[in-house]
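Sequence in, structure out. Go.
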Amino acid sequence: MTIVDACESRTNTTPEFPMGWFSVSRSQELLVGEVQQVQAFDRELVLYRTRSGEAVLQDAYCPHLGANLGVDGRVVGESIRCPFHGWRFGKEGKCEEIPYCEEIPERACIRTWHVQEKNGEIYVWFHPENTGPRWQLPDLPELDDPNWTSPRYAEFLVPAHVQDIAENSCDPVHFQYVHRQPDVPPSQVTIEDNGRILHLHSDASKAEIPSQLHATVYSPGFAIVRNTYGPGAEMVMYNSAQPISRHETKMRWTLTVRREIEDLAGDDVMKGIIDGLSDDYPIWANKVHKRRPVFCKGDETLVLFRQWVRQFYLTENDRRETA
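Output:
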């Protein structure tokens, strides 16, 4: 007798969170003394900027009675004060003061996350075992180059796992069917000798706005996409992700174009990239994650991506070795 399996939308599970750097805010959005709630990695976090200007990200719930430090918590010098009973926690996560008690319990502490502020954003390093960063964030020289325009920003809340979004960068076939390009652009995926950085080169010369595309993917949460339309005619998009949950991701895009095309076509090419997300959205919002997809011979770039992305997840052997 044949058994009808339950629908995949009810049984499929997404991957865990991959290790790497992920954006949690733009620098300009966090003022000195400001406190913000952050949702990332299925956790409630608190982000604040100390009086000296340092960005700090910590677990949000006070170990005393569980108040959320991101809701009415207050920056005091280089620390944050709980709104419930005034317990104050320093940048390293240890409780530094209980206003009504001189003796501070040893377990009065909260997790502090590894944070780096760079390229106009605040990034957090995520590793499932809370180990330190394994690589540094890349420099984005165009942001400070007078030959490039002031950056334009866009943000999107996408109902998909961060890996499924990153996988688009290695899927040239979808450009024809989702983005309505006249054909599948000839594409090649390569991986640097270090094994960690992936490149996609795609010839989109037959697109509505012809270009050569080069995507550099540093991890599932960070990529740079460079479109070249001709000599001196370029656009760069930095894509950084904030995995809110295993089913929801916030994407932050930073776009800039060469000054040579600023007035001629700069707005059009940036708008075209931003508008293109609306093509992808219905797919992401209604698909399931396939842990073991059925690939064909024409899916070489996707197969390579799936092989490459494994390095950002802990295997069972990794977990046993560190247990």
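Check: The chain has a mean pLDDT of 92. The chain has six helices and 17 strands.
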